[in-house]
Design goal:
7 helices; globular; 0% strand; mainly alpha; single chain
Length: 154
Amino acid sequence: MSEEEYAVRADGMKAKLYRTAFLYLGSETAAVDAVDEAVYQGLRAHKKLREPGFFATWLTRILINVCKGELRRRKRELLVEELPETAVEEFDALPLKEALRRLPRELREVVVLRYFTGLTLAETAQALSIPPGTVSTRQRRALALLRLDLCEEE
């Protein structure tokens, strides 16, 4: 795959990658940074991609790793206990977004990739490096937890 072909294919995926990163990180700026970093890392490694048919899954996996790295970095930062009132943002607290954030990480990953990124079961399994049966089990468990969580709020 040439650099030009990589650029065209990566550009066509940016919206999908952004949605995935936003759901992982919860911030627009962090999501944009993560997508940029993933596209850059993909460009540096595009010659290592053996099967061009798996390009979307491969680049999504790079993005997931970038997002996980960002989340690890955030954990290491010192938490500020109280922010001044001017720093508190009004956040659109939709019930689904909050319910997704409360899911365990491995269940949230499956839901994000399957329903918000639009990957198939097999692509999700490949992106997370887990068997398809595990994806199916995690998906069922996550949907059951989301259903319980959202029904309690009503």
